[in-house]
Amino acid sequence: MCELLGMSANVPTDIRFSFSALARRGGDTGPHKDGWGISFYEQKGCRSFHDPNPSAGSELAQLVKNYPIKSRTVIAHVRKANRGRVALENTHPFTRELWGRAWTFAHNGQLKGIKTLPLSFFRPIGTTDSEHAFCWIMDQLCRTYTDYPPAATLDKEIKRLFHILRQMGVFNALLTDGRSLYASCSKKLCYITRQAPFGTASLIDEDIKVDFSTETTPDDRVSVIATQPLTHDEVWTHLTPDSSAIFRKGAFIG
Amino acid sequence: MCELLGMSANVPTDIRFSFSALARRGGDTGPHKDGWGISFYEQKGCRSFHDPNPSAGSELAQLVKNYPIKSRTVIAHVRKANRGRVALENTHPFTRELWGRAWTFAHNGQLKGIKTLPLSFFRPIGTTDSEHAFCWIMDQLCRTYTDYPPAATLDKEIKRLFHILRQMGVFNALLTDGRSLYASCSKKLCYITRQAPFGTASLIDEDIKVDFSTETTPDDRVSVIATQPLTHDEVWTHLTPDSSAIFRKGAFIG
């Protein structure tokens, strides 16, 4: 198992509060010591940090925790390896370009027989089930549409592909093109949407408390999606098992 | 104009000595203040650091300078923007997956009419000439070969594509799949191959001297390719204008 973290916001937002909790679970408060990664979108650009070492003691994770990158869309992952050795090429999130946008993906779970799904254009660099599943999604989208379809069409198609993958095993996953954040919940994924009036929140994994009202404007809206709640004094919504969800500009879309 | 740095080695090698010189040229000893990036290969995995801020004062560049990532293949770039605004998506090196490998590219120069070259599969995320040229190379390779061709075939084809691009303007560029480092020299690119007996070298841009004999074994071989020589007490070979060069396992192949 691994842990996932995603963020969708309507203004560039600092992810450090949530990331510091996830990073602790990478070998400290959690067993996910086989690498970690995080991808931030800034406009159309996307930058990723990957490390096959545990995030809890990682110098790179320390930099990310201290570095005020503000982003509207983030995906992060801490890994407990099951399929695919501990190596940089097997470290999530994975990224591919499609239709002139960077797409990013992270997954927790195992998918039986995923490698029998044929791939034509997008191919895995590493050996994980997860990257194969991601390449399959990209391949399907690329075959079906030569360019960006309307948002409603794309939303429906990605939900359909997620549903197919959930039939093959455990597919808790986050996928984004920097505009929409698509979440698949096989078993375990929850989210919270923070908006005015903002309150305070305290991390479960670390002794950190934040008063969001001092860090936001009244129009800000941020949704955080995670495998398990990251704070103990807010109400997280658990996604229904075997369902998908879409977040855009910080809001739960459906 | 921008500056390029590439490394090909037969053993995982620390790039920090050379990178610290390049980073100084990013807004300090050189005018290349519009972003920088570096990509390291570790086995099949590739990690990149990108920053649209000047490398000379960059916290991220400081981390890279202090972080002993050892790699057989590296491409780095400091940018002086001409085409394409200063933004993360316009920051080199660019990366795409082809045939299950990560390909990385950085360029200096301008290419007239490059955007008239049609693209089918690979598309730019940003707005630079450079990323368009990279996507065109990837598209051409992908159309011609469904999977990795033999090395000699691939070498010849990439040299042919480089030659076409050099007819369109200034195309000093580095391209790699992590195994071979392909260099195109329109006007200005030089290299040095370090091997036993190793000596000492002093950077031009910074008061740093290294005795490579204390850091290497007799079988190590490393080639460093750069826009301008990085050291003042070694003999750098200038590539012939309008030519290509290939480096593999630290050696100049031809």
Fold topology:
2 copies of one chain form a homodimer.
Chain A: E1 3-14, H1 16-25, E2 36-42, E3 45-51, H2 59-66, E4 70-78, E5 94-98, E6 101-108, H3 129-144, H4 151-166, E7 172-176, E8 180-185, E9 190-195, E10 200-202, E11 209-211, E12 221-226, E13 237-238, E14 243-248, E15 251-252
Antiparallel strand pairs in A: 1-4, 1-12, 2-3, 2-4, 5-6, 6-7, 7-8, 8-14, 9-12, 9-13, 10-11, 14-15
Per CATH, the architecture of chain A is: 4-Layer Sandwich
Main β-sheet of chain A: number of strands, strand sense, barrel status?
7 strands, antiparallel
CATH fold descriptor of chain A: Glutamine Phosphoribosylpyrophosphate, subunit 1, domain 1
Q: Largest beta sheet of chain A: what is the strand line-up?
A: 3-2-4-1-12-9-13
**H/E topology pattern of chain A:** EHEEHEEEHHEEEEEEEEE
What does the overall shape of chain A look like? globular
| Largest interface, C-beta closer than 8 angstroms, per-chain residues | A-B, 33 and 33 residues
Our measurement of the CA-to-CA distance between the termini of chain A, rounded to an integer number of angstroms, reads 26 Å
Oligomer: homodimer
Helical/strand content category of chain A: alpha+beta
CATH class of chain A: Alpha Beta
Q: Please give the share of residues in helix of chain A.
A: 10-25%
Low-pLDDT sequence parts of chain A:
none
The number of helical runs of chain A is: 4
Overall average residue pLDDT of chain A? 91
